[in-house]
Amino acid sequence: MKCFLHPENNAVGLCRCCMRNLCQDETHIDDNLTGLFCSEKCANFISEQQRIHECAKKIYSIGKNKTKLSFPVLMITIIGVLFILFGLVFYKTSIPELSLFLLFFGLPTVIFGIAELIRRKRLKLNL
Fold first, then answer.
1. Distance between CA 35 and CA 22 in Å, rounded?
2. pLDDT at 67 over 60
3. Does residue 108 register a pLDDT over 60?
4. I want to staple 3 with a disulfide (CB 3.0 to 4.6 A). Which of 23, 30, 94, 116 is the partner?
5. What is the mean pLDDT of residues 10-28?
């Protein structure tokens, strides 16, 4: 293999970003990154890609065995259950209109919350 800029020189490796053959004179080594780079532009691109990759690992809990419950979804489910409970309490008292509102509002909220918790557990999301 020959260098892409110096055809008379033998290549010592490939640029990690653009995969060009590099000789010893053309390699740029970044202390924070592993691999060889033909330019600062390629090194910056790979650095950005690594930051995106690390953020995605944190968001989706890649590499961890246990997923956490999502606080907002859990709160929506609990609020839906409270609406249903208050609806049942008001149903037995003198305000049946309020009871119907609370029941019809609470039931879809609980269904949505449970479905979302199941979906997040299946996809192993920690959002």
1. 12
2. no
3. yes
4. 23
5. 84
Question: Residues 37, 39, 45, 46: what is their CA dihedral angle, to the nearest 10 degrees?
Answer: 10
Cα(39)–Cα(30) distance, integer angstroms: 10
11 secondary structure, DSSP code? P
Helix (H) or strand (E) holding 109, with range, is: helix 96-123
Nearest-5° Cα angle at 50, 54 to 25: 160
> pTM of the entire structure?
0.47
What crossing angle do the helices spanning 96-123 and 71-92 adopt, rounded to 10°? 160
- Integer Cα distance of 116 and 58 in angstroms: 20
Q: Where are the beta strands (DSSP E) in the chain?
A: 13-14, 21-22
DSSP state of 87: H
